[in-house]
Amino acid sequence: MRVLDLAEFYSERGGGVRSYLDRMLQHAGALGHELVVVAPGPRDEETRVGEGGKIVRYGAPRMPYDPSYHAPIAIARMRSLVRELRPDVLQLSSPFIPLWVGASLDVPLRAYVHHADPIGCYLAPLVAKHRAARPLESAAWGYLRRATERCDVTIVAGHWLERELAAHGCPRVRTVLFGIDHEQFSPAKRDEAFRRELLGPLAGEPDARLLLIAGRLAADKRQSLAIEALELVAKKRPVGLVLLGDGPERERLEERGRRLPSFRSFRFTRDRAEYSRLLASVDGLAHGSLCETFGFLLAECLASGTPLCVPDRGGAADLGDGGHAERYPAFGGAGAMAHALERLLARPRAEVSALARTRAEGIPSTRGHFSSLFGTYADLLAGQA
Questions:
Q1: Which residues fall within 8 angstroms of residue 157, CB to CB, at 6 or more apart?
Q2: d(CA 281, CA 198)
Q3: For the chain, N or C: smaller number of CB within 10 Å?
Q4: Nearest-CA neighbor of 380 among 38, 151, 104, 125?
Q5: Do 363 and 136 touch, CB atoms closer than 8 A?
Q6: Whether 191 contacts 273, CB under 8 Å
Q7: Neighbours of 113 (CB within 10 A)
Q8: What letters, b where the CB count within 10 A reaches 16 and e where it falls short, cover 78-91?
Q9: How do beta strands 284-286 and 308-311 pair?
């Protein structure tokens, strides 16, 4: 089958949606399908990927907060590409402009993939502080409900998210569990010499711990809260921080991170061996985001035997649902996160690492996920026929 994905944001430097679509491009051909990703970019261009993949970029203006993203406003161009390529499945990676463009076109199957959670990111924190904002949250759920009604299926990454969308009246929601490349991640990749190098001046202290903050460095990911929490922890025990990622908040986060007794900063790396070594060599992940719909980074940390400190909301809470993690109240501030970090770091590393690895064993493989996804699309097409 031919699947065409209308993407809203496909960043030049990465991000969750791009990572997912890049994986899908790698697996589509091997599974006997064709995938075309249509996304805004710096210029008009086409790129072939693997056996059955193609990326079509159309020139679009840069977004002001993060210029690695481009605004998906070329509605006529999106429509013409869909009509020209005649997909069997029109996959919509956004509930905004791409979805409404897709809703206006005649295609065999329209599938919305719920990659992002803007309600959890922006409105839930506002409601927690100001109850008067609750009507805004209700209106947003009403919008999402109407958007999903225009699609034949809504795909989500986990059963918890299916229950949440269904509870708010979104129809035809189906879980296709997301997956990771298990063979790339393992506790065996932990490198103690590398860990000592990252700890720097703290390397000689036996009770020193090394924490990781990673991902797209942006305000909605709440990495500044995680650094503030680490500052509180550092008053009680020696802690070092590795910051991995890039984004509009990188310089501010680096400036804040340098206040800690040990700090290293790296941009995203495409070297998977180096990345997996880093995940396995830290002592824990300090995670602030409230609005993960899955959380590839968290799942990869678990497969590496690295425990999590996560908020009690969203996909992070779902992956942090056992002894391999400590959860903190999402709106409890830096103090609540610091207490959770202290609990996590006080536990025996080998014990909590084993629990993390066990939890990861329940996460599907990347190939298994896409095999299930294409199978779901095939079943739905057959049902419509």
A1: 114, 175, 176, 177, 178, 293, 294, 315
A2: 9
A3: C
A4: 151
A5: no
A6: no
A7: 25
A8: beebbeeeebbbbb
A9: parallel
For domain 2-179+365-384, give the CATH number.
Answer: 3.40.50.2000
Tell me which architecture the domain covering 182-360 has in CATH.
3-Layer(aba) Sandwich (3.40)
Q: What is the CA radius of gyration of the chain?
A: 21
Residue pLDDT tens, the chain, 385 long: 999 999 987 876 667 788 899 999 999 999 999 999 999 999 999 999 988 799 999 999 999 988 888 998 899 999 999 999 999 999 999 999 999 999 999 999 999 999 999 998 899 888 988 888 899 999 999 999 999 999 999 999 999 999 999 999 999 999 999 999 999 999 999 999 999 999 999 999 999 999 999 999 999 999 999 999 999 999 999 999 999 999 999 999 999 999 999 999 999 888 999 999 999 999 999 999 999 999 999 999 999 999 999 999 999 999 999 999 999 999 999 999 999 999 999 999 999 999 999 999 999 999 999 999 999 999 999 997 6
> Rounded to 5 degrees, what are φ and ψ at 220?
-70, -15
Q: How many other CB atoms sit within 10 Å of the CB of residue 104?
A: 11
Say how many C-beta atoms besides its own lie within 10 A of residue 45's C-beta: 11
**CA atoms of 334 and 351, how far apart (whole Å):** 26
| Count of other CB atoms within 10 angstroms of residue 351 | 12
Distance (Å, whole) CA 237 – CA 14: 34
Q: How far apart are CA 171 and CA 93, in angstroms?
A: 17
Q: How far apart are CA 240 and CA 341, in angstroms?
A: 13
Cite the residue boundaries of each domain of the chain with CATH code 3.40.50.2000: 2-179+365-384, 182-360
